Amino acid sequence: MSAEQLYPVPQDFACNALIDDEQYQQMYQASIDDPEGFWAGQATRLSWMRPFRKVKRTSFDDHNVDINWFVDGHLNVSANCLDRHLAERGDQVAIIWEADEPGESRSITYRELHRDVCRFADVLKRQGVAQGDVVTIYMPMIPEAAVAMLACTRIGAVHSVVFAGFSPEALAGRILDCKSNLVITADEGRRGGRSIPLKVNVDEALTNPEIKSVERVIVVRRTGADIRWHEHRDRDYTVLMEQADDFCPPDPMDSEAPLFILYTSGSTGKPKGIMHTTAGYLLYAALTHQYVFDYQPGEVYWCTADIGWVTGHSYTLYGPLANGATTVMFEGIPNYPDVTRLAQIIDKHKVSILYTAPTAIRSMMALGKAAVEGADGSSLRLLGSVGEPINPEAWHWYYETVGQSRCPIVDTWWQTETGGILITPLPGATALKPGSATRPFFGVQPALVDNLGNVLEGATEGNLVLLDSWPGQSRSIWGDHERFVETYFKTFKGTYFTGDGARRDEDGYYWITGRVDDVLNVSGHRMGTAEVESALVAHRHVAEAAVVGVPHDLKGQGIYVYVTLIEGVEPSEQLRQELRQWVRREIGPIATPDCIQWAPGLPKTRSGKIMRRILRKIAVGEYEGLGDISTLAEPGVVEDLINEHRAMM
Ligand code: WTA
After folding, report:
1. pLDDT surpasses 60 at 4
2. Residue 43 has what DSSP assignment?
3. At what positions is N6-acetyllysine found (predicted)?
């Protein structure tokens, strides 16, 4: 290990940390040697309404994938996040809400949050929502979103949060898939000084004639904008809350009762509804939140993720609240009104722990030290990173400029499917290497396999798999268990396949190298190439499209598109713009192509499979070493594409 790459745990951090290296080693070993004993011990951090009978009954056998934790136990998520804290910390702030516009914020105590959640749970019941019903939440980052999610858990309804940046089209697809009967939204969202027409989007989504399930839309007034009102269907949040009871008892839910669905992109087909269940998810989110962020009572903790993503579920909401923490919920974006916004919020609320994404870090880094100009930053103790590999340059900038060379950085690797963080440093235990997610969390058994599934030993590189289950793992894809098995358990039999590649160094540290499948990671958002392609071919002028990721300074990956137009349509700059807008409308702004190249033909094998390997190289101007192209159906298209690419650059 070369010394200059290594950042040992700072002395003063180590003294007060929850877990030091020796404890990490010990606990990790115990969690692998005796998972049942380890997790039974950890389960005491939750309040149970009925004890579980068995800790773990899990199978990764691809003929019978079946994952159960804390079998036959009963508990309630909202009771664990709220009720049990009331005696000790009812008046402590649970959520600090910071609005898009600086100067506007709200603090909500555990007692207040408990009351609002009770009331809204009562509202949901009165609206006919029952256990097991799916409620779609399409909301901005406002406290009412947290209230809505927790209220669902209180009565055993399953929430499906759809990121408020998604288009009506994308929203409709998700509602259709999970057959929600109720949608919760706001009149408008506010983000970066602009309004997002959420209610208009919901109205438009619900014009989809295939959607027959939705009976109610509950609307929170965020901006007071004029909106269309459908008397038979729409209800005002404030009016309903005024009529509701102050107390609603938490329903005892089975450990394995579905808790939420979160749609995410895969390499094929439409987004899949990743399903998480009650006990294992909550326990895992709470445990990782405490140890990975070394959370100590009273501290202000801030995860910048939107609740529309899994990071917002586990680490803005459930993990922190289960631990009785004070969590910051920020409506806006890091560079509004200007690039100092994050630093200002940190000072304003005395944030100790900041958890954000490399894309935000890079966008601040682009302006040098301007992001921290005039800021104090002395409240910070720990930094975190998530969502994509953090390049060493961004790591160093984050460490020195935001963390003042004082705060450790936890680079946390995980996925929507994993429910919580799997590979990460523990800040009091792990010496850091910039760019490495370092070591597995308790109970997590990563392995690297070659393309045939052979487990590789020692310092090496391969496909990242997990050998055994952990409590936070997704249990299924909503309504399609077969697809779940197919996607995660068939590639390398007997293991969970992550879709990521990784390298393990001589110290056993993991370095995530990125996706090995056709999934892009644009600004930390997962996107299937297939999704963007199917949006494009839905345009009347497009015959065929192929999408590849290309390196992008700020976004990590950019979206590069090859488009074949139908016979007789002439390529033009105007059409290019139209297609960009089209994809925005079909999926959402995050899917906007960065570059569109006209392709008279695409390189395909004789069996018709598009050779993305070739397209990826051409997109970055690597015209040499394209490999054997003689097996292509029409080898000539490659030269045409190269010429077109040259002409564009
Ligand atoms: C990538 C986000 C490198 C990875 C929590 C994974 C990362 C995908 C890291 C999941 C990290 C996430 N280093 N890559 N620290 N964290 N990824 O489902 O490719 O939105 O498979 O979950 O993001 O994205 P998802």
Report:
1. no
2. G
3. 609
